[in-house]
Amino acid sequence: MSQISRDDVAHLARLARLALTDDELDSFSGQLDAILQHVSQVQAVDVTGVAPTGNPLSEVNVTRPDVVEVCLTQGQALAEAPRAVDGRFAVPQILGESQ
């Protein structure tokens, strides 16, 4: 038995300000009905005794410790730049912003 009708889809389309053709209404009603049937199957699963969880995996993110290392000075970094202004990289203007 269908859980969502073509009229339901047309109503949802109007609420969402979508212009759907008759073929689209028929197609979407079938697709939405299939989705609702799958959701019903998931809801019917017995989860008694299953603890709620946000992530079923017990693994944690593996990261390395932060270690301060020697890096380029500002002058060294800017030495290879095509253009620098006031100790910063100069890049082409975008989106009409003034400099």
TrEMBL record:
Q: What does this protein do?
A: Allows the formation of correctly charged Asn-tRNA(Asn) or Gln-tRNA(Gln) through the transamidation of misacylated Asp-tRNA(Asn) or Glu-tRNA(Gln) in organisms which lack either or both of asparaginyl-tRNA or glutaminyl-tRNA synthetases. The reaction takes place in the presence of glutamine and ATP through an activated phospho-Asp-tRNA(Asn) or phospho-Glu-tRNA(Gln).
Which InterPro entries does this chain map to? Asp/Glu-ADT_sf_sub_c, GatC
Species annotation: Mycolicibacterium komossense
Return the similarity comment.
Belongs to the GatC family.
Q: What is its EC number?
A: 6.3.5.-
Which reaction(s) are listed as its catalytic activity?
L-glutamyl-tRNA(Gln) + L-glutamine + ATP + H2O = L-glutaminyl-tRNA(Gln) + L-glutamate + ADP + phosphate + H(+); L-aspartyl-tRNA(Asn) + L-glutamine + ATP + H2O = L-asparaginyl-tRNA(Asn) + L-glutamate + ADP + phosphate + 2 H(+)
Q: What HAMAP family does the database record attribute to this sequence?
A: GatC
Gene3D superfamilies for this protein = Glu-tRNAGln amidotransferase C subunit, N-terminal domain (1.10.20.60)
Quaternary assembly: Heterotrimer of A, B and C subunits.
Query: What protein does this entry describe?
Result: Aspartyl/glutamyl-tRNA(Asn/Gln) amidotransferase subunit C
Q: What class of enzyme is it?
A: ligase
Q: Which Pfam families match?
A: GatC
**Keyword 4Fe-4S: yes or no?**
no
Which domain of life does this protein belong to? Bacteria
For this UniProt record, the keywords arranged alphabetically read as follows: ATP-binding, Ligase, Nucleotide-binding, Protein biosynthesis
